[in-house]
Amino acid sequence: MKHTLIGRTLVAGAVLPIMSLTAQAYAASGTVTYNRDSPNPNVGWHNDGPWRVCSQDCDNPEIPGSDFTCKDVTILGMPFRDCMRP
């Protein structure tokens, strides 16, 4: 019984700081929403008559007209770009 209690205490002592670091790591800054169509018909998303079309790098969430919101995040001390579509 004594060994089980010590084991649980050690596991809890190791997991709680990791959870705390992860929760603090998602402080966001530099948020941009790409909701304006591209003025250049050769780059990004735009309307072409009744159709929604894209040219060049269409899988990029940070392209004009993509409707993605992207923000800078730091996870465990490393910078990343987090992008989501509403």
**Which class best fits the helix and strand makeup?**
alpha+beta
Helix tally? 1
Distance between the termini: 51 Å
Compute the number of strand runs: 5
Give the percentage of residues in beta strands. Answer: 25-35%
Strand order of the largest sheet: 1-4-5
Q: Which regions contain 5 or more consecutive residues with pLDDT less than 50? A: 5-28
Q: What is the succession of H and E elements?
A: HEEEEE
Query: Taking Cα atoms only, what radius of gyration do you get, to the nearest Å?
Result: 22 Å
Mean pLDDT: 75
Shape: elongated
Task: Characterize the main sheet.
Answer: 3 strands, antiparallel
Measured as a percent range, the helix fraction is 25-40%
In short:
This protein is α+β, with helices and mostly antiparallel strands. It has one helix spanning 2-24; strands spanning 29-33, 44-48, 51-55, 69-75, 78-84. The chain has a domain at 26-84.
Task: Characterize the structure shown.
- The chain is an alpha+beta fold.
- The chain has a domain of 59 residues.
- Helix content is 27%, strand content 34%.
- It is built from one helix and five strands.
- The strands form two sheets. It has a three-stranded antiparallel sheet with strand order 1-4-5, covered by helices on one side. Strands 2-3 form a two-stranded antiparallel sheet.
- It is elongated and about 45 Å long.
